[in-house]
Amino acid sequence: QQQVKQSPQSLIVQKGGISIINCAYENTAFDYFPWYQQFPGKGPALLIAIRPDVSEKKEGRFTISFNKSAKQFSLHIMDSQPGDSATYFCAASPGRKDSNYQLIWGAGTKLIIKP
Amino acid sequence: NAGVTQTPKFRILKIGQSMTLQCTQDMNHNYMYWYRQDPGMGLKLIYYSVGAGITDKGEVPNGYNVSRSTTEDFPLRLELAAPSQTSVYFCASSQGQGASDTGELFFGEGSRLTVL
Question: What's residue A102's pLDDT?
Answer without folding.
Answer: 75
